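Bumping my old thread because nobody answered last time. Still need a sequence for this structure:
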């Protein structure tokens, strides 16, 4: 029973630390998640940012219209300019997690509320094809279960620090996250 209580406490701690940084992106069809990088900037997947104007839903229930500031369609990344109104930016991890490391998948699918799940890194330096068919390498494969609309949400370590950006289902029970390395930063 103590092990379950430790897991519960870890999930709650990540929700408290990183949860205020996790936003919903879009509405209805095409709804996804994102993460506050700094004042006025939200990071998400490019496939969540198909329109120039995007609704961003914050954890406190507030919504704001944002505009796409930049897109790397080949890398499936987008930055949205939006009034973050003091929402906490996510902290960055110092290193990419290794095989077997505990990771936490966070999302706020289209603004429908925070989700936090626990998983393990099941593969490192994985590759997949982005929306335009470009090979994206260096991603993190993990087992944190995520609902539809989770792409663009952060993958964190136990301290709630960003280690990746969830982007692609890799089959039954696996998800790929773009590593939050120097290139992403």
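Sorry it took so long. Here it is:
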């Amino acid at each position: 029973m103590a092990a379950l209580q430790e897991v519960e406490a870890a999930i709650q701690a990540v929700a408290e630390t990183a949860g205020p940084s996790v936003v919903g992106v879009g509405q209805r069809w095409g709804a996804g998640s994102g993460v506050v990088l700094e004042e006025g900037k939200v990071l998400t997947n490019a496939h969540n940012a198909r329109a120039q104007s995007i609704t961003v839903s914050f954890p406190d229930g507030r919504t704001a219209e944002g505009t796409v500031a930049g897109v790397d369609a080949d890398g499936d990344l987008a930055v949205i300019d939006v009034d973050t109104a003091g929402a906490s930016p996510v902290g960055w991890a110092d290193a990419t997690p290794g095989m077997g490391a505990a990771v936490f998948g966070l999302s706020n699918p289209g603004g429908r509320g925070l989700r936090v799940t626990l998983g393990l890194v099941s593969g490192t330096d994985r590759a997949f094809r982005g929306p335009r068919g470009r090979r994206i390498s260096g991603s993190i494969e993990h087992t944190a279960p995520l609902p539809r609309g989770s792409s663009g949400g952060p993958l964190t370590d136990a301290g709630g620090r960003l280690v990746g950006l969830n982007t692609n289902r890799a089959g039954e029970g696996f998800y790929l996250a773009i590593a939050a390395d120097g290139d992403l930063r």
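The mean pLDDT is 91. Let me know if any region looks off to you.
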